[in-house]
Design a protein that fits this description.
The chain is of the alpha/beta class. It contains seven helices and six strands; from the N terminus they run βαββααβαβαβαα. The chain is 34% helix and 12% strand. α4 links the parallel β4 and β5. The two termini are 20 Å apart.
């Protein structure tokens, strides 16, 4: 699983991406954080894009490249309905094969737009617990991006979907 997040984006989005990578690893799935500005291109891989409204806009890619990336990615939406950021998320999520949102209000609003969104409930991973963390650095500092050859998807449903509520 590849988890993409904007290199120049909001640190909280980077934290969410790092938590997803950590959760996948704890569940025994190979995963990597991609924060180098590259877009997802491998349709055979599981590609999560955290905060698509931020990731694609800050990528400086052209519309064709963004559309191609969206078609092979699962956006992890984070924005509140009624904002311009949410409206941008709607536009960027339409071509995706699956859409997740961390907020139940966002799920309902995406569904009202005709997008079959599902709720991704963020859970606890060890780096979220300051009592067990070896340092006071934020979680994103513990998970530096690693770029390696594309990862083949595991058999069965993606890890991100097995815990969707």
């Amino acid at each position: 699983m590849n988890v993409f997040v904007a290199a120049r984006g909001n640190d909280f989005m980077a934290d969410i991406a790092a938590w997803l990578v950590e959760a996948a690893a704890l569940a025994g799935h190979r995963s990597q954080l991609v924060r180098d500005g590259s877009l997802p291109t491998d349709a055979a891989a599981i590609n999560l894009v955290v905060a698509p409204h931020e990731f694609y806009v800050l990528s400086d890619a052209d519309d064709a490249a963004i559309d191609a990336a969206a078609q092979c990615s699962i956006p992890v939406c984070t924005e509140q309905p009624g904002t311009s950021w949410f409206d941008m998320t709607v536009l960027l999520s339409r071509a995706s094969p699956m859409v997740l949102d961390i907020n139940t209000h966002g799920v309902a609003a995406l569904q009202a737009e005709g997008i079959e969104a599902q709720h991704l409930r963020l859970g606890g991973v060890p780096s979220m617990d300051r009592r067990s963390a070896p340092s006071t650095s934020p979680p994103s500092a513990h998970h530096q991006p690693t770029i390696s050859p594309p990862i083949s998807p595991p058999t069965g449903p993606p890890m991100c979907c097995s815990s969707v509520a």
